[in-house]
């Protein structure tokens, strides 16, 4: 399993992620939505498209714009459509089984 953990809380957990530019993109159904709230931030990547962001809140602490996703990525990035990735500070943990390359 691959997990995204912040402030001692598992934010996402999946058997597989899609790795792009060193970031693990988690499937939308693997995310603990109660910790996410929409952010107003939007950014543009020339090959992925427009990213939308979420703020994370755990135990009263907020990490602004800590997670992002591409709702309508460009064709070259279609494998990450709707998947969530996280900025540093959110720890990505992999079990031994997934660390061997099965992501």
What features would you highlight for this structure?
3-stranded antiparallel β-sheet, 9 strands, Metal Binding Protein, Guanine Nucleotide Exchange Factor, Chain A, mainly beta, 103 residues, globular, single chain, 4-stranded antiparallel β-sheet
Report on this model:
A four-stranded antiparallel sheet has the order 5-6-7-8, with no helix packed on it. A three-stranded antiparallel sheet has the order 2-1-9. The chain has a two-stranded antiparallel ribbon with strand order 3-4. The radius of gyration is 13 Å and the shape is globular. With 103 residues, the chain is mainly beta. The chain has one helix and nine strands. Strand 1 and strand 2 form a beta hairpin. 4% of the residues lie in helices and 51% in strands. It has a single domain, classed as Domain of unknown function (DUF427) (Metal Binding Protein, Guanine Nucleotide Exchange Factor, Chain A).
Topology:
Layout: E1 2-6, E2 9-14, E3 18-20, E4 23-25, E5 36-45, E6 49-58, E7 61-69, E8 84-86, E9 91-94, H1 96-99
Antiparallel strand pairs: 1-2, 1-9, 3-4, 5-6, 6-7, 7-8
């Amino acid at each position: 399993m691959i997990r995204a953990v912040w402030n001692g809380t598992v934010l996402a957990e999946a058997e597989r992620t899609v790795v792009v530019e060193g970031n693990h993109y988690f499937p939308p159904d693997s995310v603990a939505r109660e910790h996410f709230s929409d952010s107003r931030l939007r950014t543009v990547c020339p090959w992925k498209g427009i990213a939308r962001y979420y703020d994370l809140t755990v135990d009263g602490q907020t990490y602004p714009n800590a997670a992002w996703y591409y709702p309508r990525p460009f064709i070259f990035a279609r494998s990450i459509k709707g998947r969530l990735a996280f900025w540093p500070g959110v720890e990505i943990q992999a079990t031994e089984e997934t660390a061997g390359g099965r992501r």
